[in-house]
Design brief:
The protein is an alpha/beta fold and 152 residues long. It has 4 helices and 7 strands, in the order βββαβαβαββα. The chain binds zinc ion (ZN).
């Protein structure tokens, strides 16, 4: 079986680093400049096929945004989540899952109303939030998730 890898861009020198998923929890460093690689950030797109791999191999908590293109409130919180992801590339990974295209995962987490955010740490659901929050409350929620994951 071929080793699964992911590509992470260094924050210091912008070099793309290919990192085996199995090594993510060893605090991988940039091959070019030696800086610690940011293991969060995003948003990335996840699917039924890679959902389990992403949430269980991520060394930082993963906030999954269950959304759909037709959902107005989803479009409102999308840019806020993107901003939070950009501010905290070492602390949290934001992942978006389109519920129409990925019904298996949506059914598994009983997503009936979107937007729905579920935070995962080491593959376990840590917290969830249904409905759009104002930006300040969303930041507070994400910070709480990060702190709970650190304490776990
Ligand atoms: Zn670098």
């Amino acid at each position: 079986m071929q080793e699964q890898t992911t590509t992470i861009e260094c924050e210091s020198c912008n070099k793309s680093n290919r990192v085996p998923l199995a090594r993510l929890k060893d605090k991988p460093k940039c091959g070019e400049c030696g800086a610690l690689l940011p293991l969060g950030g995003g948003p990335i797109t996840i699917t039924d096929d890679n959902f389990d791999t992403v949430v269980s191999t991520s060394p930082v908590p993963v906030v999954v945004d269950f959304w759909a293109p037709w959902c107005g409130p989803c479009r409102m919180i999308g840019p806020v989540l993107e901003q939070i992801a950009g501010e905290k590339p070492f602390d949290v990974l934001v992942a978006k899952l389109n519920v129409d295209e990925n019904p298996r995962t949506a059914a598994r987490f009983q997503v009936r109303s979107i937007p729905m955010l579920v935070a995962f740490h080491d593959g376990e659901a840590l917290d969830s939030q249904v409905g759009a929050l104002p930006p300040a409350s969303m930041r507070t929620w994400v910070d709480r998730v990060i702190n709970r994951a650190r304490a776990a």
